[in-house]
Write a structure and sequence with these properties.
Number of helices: 12
Shape: elongated
Order of helices and strands: HHEEEHEHEHEHHEEEEEHHHEEHH
Oligomer: single chain
Radius of gyration: 30 Å
Distance between the termini: 84 Å
Helix content: 25-40%
Strand content: 15-25%
């Protein structure tokens, strides 16, 4: 066939047995691509990190927060959303998990009620949205954001998807499912410079989000949320920006109201319990992890090495805080933990730290030389604030809720 010859599409269709009219689809007009304005690009101040929630949610970025069931990721995210609203954001929270009674209980525990202005917390309970890994679902989300931005043009917008597995259709273990989410919904949020978060469940091992490996490809930050003894810790599995911290810890406060407070450090769940056990077994605070773990195992109370290490570190921080407050430096004469004065050296130090009682030679983990065992009233106050055998308040260190 010559290049100048034309092709009769209708004749070819007739020959192939097709019937009916040829339908030419009508394409919706689209806006032309928007190129970068280089003057604005270079003029933008990029020296400071921009946060929607400091150290956790970066402004205009995509985030994934995953955790085991029951660790409180939705509760923490709800608190974070309210903090963003207080800071001037408009938050769209799409919730496929909770019911109204659950939400009422959580908001009430935080101290909110009918007089609270939640006009900028746009809450969708069991949303009637098309799957977010489809074109229709992405367009619906984009339209919601456009409406919010039109209503509050001066406000930044954040979107929360709780939980991603319920917001999409298809096999969770398929990369196509999560890639479809980004292609249809994630990209709409990114184009609008929205701060967005999707919540997810941890896999069976708990070391990564459940399902497809592509779940970390479309976001800028991936947080793994775990419980600690007094709150939660977020550990970043992925950070596209160097200014995002590797770990962030929060203490959960339940009195007088439910809230979270960022702290400088955290203790793995079980740390305080193991610290009590080590204290009861009179294991010296300077004993190594293996010795401490052996002592626990010998007593029929074996624990994981990471928790034993943290418990020993916690005991040392408590002891150091008391010594610094009392003016005593280890290895020098000073005020003993129970209020007396003693020369600290060798076995005398061990005896002094045990409040005048010798440590039995057969005590698991017992060692001679510097170091201490039973902390007695020190630990009763450290682990139960406000309950002390002495009148002096317990001093808290940087890893125990106190000053640096």
């Amino acid at each position: 066939m010559m290049a100048s010859d034309s092709i009769d599409i209708r004749a070819l269709m007739d020959q192939a047995g097709f019937v009916g009219p040829v339908v030419v689809p009508e394409l919706e007009p689209t806006a032309p691509p928007r190129f970068i304005d280089w003057e604005d690009f270079w003029a933008k101040d990029r020296t400071e990190a921009e946060w929607a929630l400091e150290d956790v949610l970066a402004r205009g970025r995509g985030h994934s927060i995953y955790a085991r069931h029951g660790t409180g990721k939705s509760l923490f995210t709800l608190w974070a959303c309210i903090e963003m609203v207080k800071a001037g954001y408009v938050v769209i929270y799409a919730d496929w998990e909770m019911g109204e009674d659950d939400l009422y209980e959580r908001l009430s525990d935080m101290g909110y009620g009918p007089d609270t202005d939640f006009s900028r917390l746009r809450y969708l309970m069991i949303p009637d949205l098309a799957p977010l890994n489809t074109h229709e679902g992405g367009q619906q989300v984009g339209a919601m954001v456009d409406e919010v931005q039109l209503t509050w043009p001066e406000c930044n917008v954040a979107v929360v998807i709780d939980t991603i597995s319920r917001a999409v259709v298809g096999e969770e273990n398929s990369n196509d499912t999560i890639q479809g989410f980004y292609r249809h919904t994630g990209i709409e949020l990114k184009r609008r410079a929205v701060t967005w978060v999707r919540l997810d469940h941890a896999g069976h091992e708990g070391s990564h989000a459940r399902g497809a490996s592509a779940k970390g490809d479309d976001v800028d930050v991936v947080w793994k949320l775990t419980l600690t003894d007094d709150g939660i810790e977020l550990k970043s599995d992925k950070r596209r920006m160097g200014w995002v911290p590797e770990r962030v810890a929060f203490r959960i406060m339940t009195e007088p109201l439910l809230s979270y407070a960022k702290v400088d450090g955290s203790w793995p769940a079980g740390t305080h319990e193991v610290a009590r056990l080590l204290d009861e077994l009179r294991v010296p605070v300077d004993a190594g992890m293996r010795s401490a773990k052996t002592a626990l195992s010998s007593a029929g109370k074996g624990r994981r090495g990471v928790v034993v290490t943290a418990a020993q570190r916690y005991r040392r921080s408590v002891l150091k805080a008391r010594e610094e407050t009392s003016g005593h430096t280890p290895g020098h004469t000073g005020t003993h933990l129970s209020g007396g004065v003693s020369h600290i050296s060798g076995h005398t130090e061990q005896k002094a730290r045990n409040h005048g009682q010798d440590t039995p030679p057969d005590t698991p983990g017992h060692t001679s030389g510097t170091g201490g065992g039973d902390l007695g009233p020190l630990f009763r106050e450290a682990l139960n604030p406000g309950v002390s055998d002495t009148d002096e308040p317990f001093p808290r260190g940087p890893l125990n809720g106190g000053p640096k």
